[in-house]
Structures are given as C-alpha cells and as structure tokens.
Design brief:
Blueprint (H helix, E strand, L loop, with lengths): L1 H18 L7 E4 L5 E4 L6 E4 L2 E4 L18 E6 L4 E5 L4 E10 L3 E6 L23 E10 L7 E10 L2 E12 L28 E15 L4 E3 L1 E6 L3 E5 L14 E3 L5 E3 L8 E8 L4 E11 L3
C-alpha cells in the first residue's frame, strides 16, 4: 500500500514543481526516505489572464543554519471559474475556484461591490494562513441561490499568500428563462443544482463549499484540515480514513474533529500520509470531498 502512495505522491510532487511560475528554478526531489525537499533560485514576475494576476514564487534564501533552503512563497490559480456564465432566476447554481499556494493561501469570494459573497455565513468561504510551512491546494465553491433583479453580477475569487494575491472574476448574467438569453445565447448556462421538493422549499441539501485538495506539511506540525459546508439544517461533518473508518480521538488521541468541521492532526507523522474524506450530511443530501495529506521533512 505504501509503495502505491509513493508513486502517487511522486506524480503530485512533480506537478507541484510545474505549478510554480516558469523560470523560478524550483526543483522537487525525493529523499531516500521519500520525504519532500525543495529549493529555488531567486525569481520574481507577474502575469495576467482572464482577470487573473499572478505573483510568482520568491527565491530561496540561504541562512546561517548550515545553508538550508527556505521554501519559496507563491500563490497561483490552478483552476479558474468561467469568465462569463448565465443563470436562470430562481435556480441555485455554483461557481468553483481552485488555488494553490505556499504558505496555505487565504481564499475568499466577493461580489461586485467588494463585499463577501456568502451572505449567510462569512466564514464559509474563507481560510486563514494557520502555518507558514504548509503548501496547499484549496478548492472553494460559491453557491448562488438568490434571485437577482440586476441584469448581471460579478463574482471574484481571491487568493492571498505571504503578501501576494491572485484573483479571477466571473460575470453572471441573470435571465428569466432560456428563451430570454437573447444577446447572451453564446454564454454557457450554469447547470442548476438539483431542486428540492416544494414541501421542503425552506431546506437546503448539504454541500461542501471549501476544502483542501492536497496539503504538504512538516512532520511534527499540527495540521488543520477544513471542511466548510452549507445546508439547512446545518450539515453534520464526519471524517473517514482510506479504509472508510471514522477518524477521531476515540481511535487516536492525535485526531479530533471540531464542531465547525475541521479535522485536527497533532504531531504529524509519516504514517499519517494518505487521503482523508470529509462527509457532510443533512436530512436532504450528502456531499463528500477528499484531502491528500503529505508529511514532509523540515529543511
């Protein structure tokens, strides 16, 4: 089983190296014990595309502790939401954005006025930088279920890490029906989320709106894996390991799940490497997301 994990993570590590801005000189190597090491030469650049501004990785710094390399910082949108979409009024739709950064980036959705786009719970679409040593790929979804009188609204996904920022905007055109697309007939129509029976119109099915896809963190660190979810009634969060067993303090005192849904792993070990599945469930629906945790040896 461990050999399969090693092969999987070798591919992930190579991908991690490619995700840093070209020319940064970042190289990813595997030590004999398969721990992850990294180094980089100094580089700095910026680019923009489809409303995205990318701040590149900083170069490595050689300190007075034996010449060890300090992991470079960067933030990058790895999967942007579409630039333009149409929404039929009265339907619930979603936008998804994926951002990778070192350290773990904060991510947030805002709408045209600059306000947080999640009206019910501001914390749902925000992650804070908990540790400066982590590298994470963050997935965030914005659930849009409010009819808008405006003809269009702009929603922007923003990621920040170590003073650097990236963003990607989506213009949502609001129409009354497919027949009213008119000038927007060439704009992709967002697929509505499955409708709830009218007798449950005040309820919402569980939907995970924010989680890590992958996380690289130093061994010995305390890891916080977020799993933010929306729904009415509020979804119950459960974490499972690769064997499908519930993860928690009853099985291992180093693991515990917070009431807000985060999974805490204290004193991260090499043996903790693997996939952890968050399950969000309420009376209407169940949603799942996976996070792959890769412990690395500190420089």
């Amino acid at each position: 089983m461990m050999n399969v994990k090693h092969l999987l993570m070798l591919a992930v590590c190579l991908l991690l190296a490619l995700l840093v801005t070209p020319g940064s000189g970042r190289a990813v190597v595997l030590d004999p014990d398969t721990a992850l090491g990294a180094s980089a030469s100094a580089s700095s650049s910026s680019s923009s595309s489809s409303g995205t501004v990318v701040s590149s990785a900083e170069g490595s710094v050689r300190g007075g502790d034996g010449g060890r390399a300090i992991r470079p910082t960067f933030v990058k949108i790895t999967a942007a939401p579409p630039a333009r979409v149409a929404q039929i009024r009265g339907t619930t739709v979603e936008l998804e954005c994926e951002i990778m950064g070192s350290p773990t980036p904060t991510v947030q959705w805002v709408h045209g006025s600059g306000q947080t786009a999640d009206w019910e719970d501001i914390s749902v679409n925000v992650i804070s930088e908990d540790t400066p040593t982590s590298v994470a790929r963050v997935v965030t979804r914005l659930v849009i279920d409010r009819a808008s009188r405006a003809s269009q609204t702009t929603f922007t996904c923003i990621g920040r890490a170590a003073g650097q920022e990236v963003s990607s905007s989506t213009v949502v055109y609001h129409v009354d029906s497919v027949a009213h697309l008119g000038n927007y007939s060439d704009v992709p129509l967002l697929r509505p989320v499955a409708a709830v029976d009218t007798m449950f119109k005040n309820l919402k099915g569980a939907r995970i709106t924010l989680h890590y896809k992958t996380l690289f963190e130093n061994m010995g660190s305390t890891v916080v894996l977020p799993c933010k979810a929306v729904g009415r009634p509020l979804p119950e969060i459960t974490w499972l390991n690769e064997e499908g067993n519930v993860v928690g303090s009853l099985q291992d005192a180093r693991f515990r799940t917070l009431p807000t849904g985060e999974l805490i792993i204290t004193g991260l070990r090499w043996a903790d490497m693997g996939s952890y599945t968050c399950v969000a469930k309420n009376v209407l629906a169940k949603d799942e997301s996976e996070t792959f945790v890769y412990p690395i040896r500190p420089n």
